[in-house]
Amino acid sequence: MTLLIYLLIGAAAGFTAGLFGVGGGLTIVPILYLVFLQQGYDPSIVMHMALGTSLATIMVTSISSLSAHHKKGAVLWQVFRNLAPSLVIGAFLGAGIADLLPTHGLQLIIGLFALWVAWRMFRTAQVQIDPNSKLPSKMAQVGAGAGIGVASAIFGIGGGSLTVPYLNRHGVVMQNAVATSAACGLPIAIAGALGFMWFGVQTQPIKGAVGYVHIYAFIGISVMSFITAKLGAKVAHQLSSAMLKKCFAGLLSVVGVFFVYKGFF
């Protein structure tokens, strides 16, 4: 039964990753949190386990989603090369920061962050891209990558919640922003997952887990997400930018309300 739950989570996460370029973490984290609690794991590390496992699965969903977007020529590879090195460093450091934060603190931070991004995305859904807007310098992109990497590891996401709005704000149309975000999710996921494994080795051992990464959940979720991410990417190229933004904002709002509630209660 647990394996079936992991497969269903993977199906939803993969589709979300392809559709919004968010790596699926916003779908995976809250569900894994509830599943791990039901399995009787220590509540003090359940949130950290959900974050670490989410990042591990994003390695797979990012590859699948990236492949689909690349075939459509939507990935801005030069932007990816500018962001990737600092994304890696930031994501590993972010895992270490998350390890120091208590469960309720993590939940509240993630919830408020999701609601803030949702508000910004919904508010700008009908705003047209300024054709004169340009991406900042290479060094500015490197700095942005570091910040995105740190935040992404703390939130257990592939960075899409930050990368997509960042690129969109600087004149990149939604489809290209989503595609490039999918590419950026891979280095974030690899560095972040390794960080959660490294910083979690001192915790009480859980069968089937390495640090804060649950291997069985990782495998079950990854199998389905690899398949459904391609479907999500296909749908993304059939929707308008405004519709994508509204759907993205709706997803973030649900996740935000859930974690703000858990953070307080």
Short description, anyone?
The chain has helices at about 1-20, 25-40, 45-70, 75-100, 105-125, 140-155, 160-170, 175-200, 215-235, 240-265, and strands at about 210, 215.
What would the keywords be for this entry?
single chain, about 260 residues, mainly alpha, two-stranded antiparallel ribbon, globular
Biggest sheet statistics: 2 strands, antiparallel
> How many angstroms does the end-to-end distance come to?
29 Å
Percent of sequence in beta strands: under 5%
Tally of domains: 1
Shape call: globular
Fraction of residues in helix: over 70%
Please tally the β strands and state the result: 2
The total count of helices amounts to 10
Strand order in space, largest sheet: 1-2
Radius of gyration: 17 Å
Structural classification = mainly alpha
- How would you describe the oligomerization state of the chains in this entry? single chain
Uncertain spans, ≥5 residues at pLDDT below 50? none
